[in-house]
Design brief:
By secondary structure, this protein is mostly beta strands. It has four helices and 15 strands. The protein has a 15-stranded mixed sheet that branches.
């Protein structure tokens, strides 16, 4: 993979809403296809803290909150994550991610407060986008675990939504790139969450999905990320 950075992800919530595949497909770039499960596409909102960020094998330094809106996609049959936006509260982190990974990061003002431990841990996560080159977006939620942690069973919906080791992105010229990450399998607990404010969908041109989200709270995990590469997709955006 050519590891470039190492980091730890903690206090991470996966909140997933099922949506019509066509809703997502029309917002994907050429060559990127919607990945579906039992006929449904998914939009995911993922707040977390990224810490101990640094070059692989060297002393670590950066730490900041991150919030992203994502979907799941394939390019030439290879599954991955497609990010509509990623907000972070560190100016250097945003600049680094844009330069190294071509990802749509935006500067945000965030606060992350925690209380308790293990299954009693509660995360208070607030975000307000401060970037002038993207629509405003706000998020305010309290979340945590609502059951024991376990590794998702292969083939389960939880594995479909979380066990992804590639991401896709485009640069300002519309050229498609991919990047790979590596980590141990997720350990997930059923999640609980109170969403007090969430304008990420509207900021990206989506109607708010109907129904309650599927929630998973993740145990901390160490991650490595490699350099991005140009992708050579053969087909236009479609639904799979």
């Amino acid at each position: 993979m050519g590891e470039l950075l190492s980091m730890t992800w903690r206090d991470l919530l996966f909140a997933h809403w099922s949506v019509a595949p066509e809703t997502v497909a029309e917002r994907l770039p050429p060559g990127v296809s919607v990945d579906t499960r039992d006929g449904d596409a998914y939009l995911g909102v993922v707040p977390f803290v990224m810490s101990d960020i640094g070059p692989r094998g060297l002393p670590v330094g950066l730490a900041f909150g991150e919030l992203n809106l994502r979907t799941y996609a394939t390019v030439d049959g290879e599954p991955g994550v497609y990010f509509f936006n990623l907000d972070a509260d560190d100016r250097i982190g945003v600049a680094l991610a844009r330069r190294l990974f071509q990802l749509p990061y935006y500067r945000a003002e965030m606060s992350v407060e925690t209380s308790g431990d293990g299954r009693s841990r509660t995360v208070e996560f607030r975000s307000r986008r401060r970037s002038g080159d993207a629509p405003p977006a706000r998020f305010d939620a309290a979340y945590g675990a609502d059951g024991p942690f376990s590794t998702p069973a292969p083939g389960s919906l939880a594995a479909f939504l979380t066990e992804r080791y590639r991401f896709y992105t485009t640069d300002d010229g519309g050229r498609l790139y991919y990047g790979d990450i590596d980590h141990e399998p997720w350990r997930l607990a059923p999640g609980r969450a109170e969403f007090r404010e969430n304008t990420l969908f509207a900021a990206n041109g989506f109607d708010r999905p109907a129904g309650d989200p599927l929630l998973h709270f993740a145990a901390p995990i160490d991650v490595t990320a490699g350099r991005v590469h140009r992708a050579s997709a053969r087909d236009p955006a479609s639904v799979t």
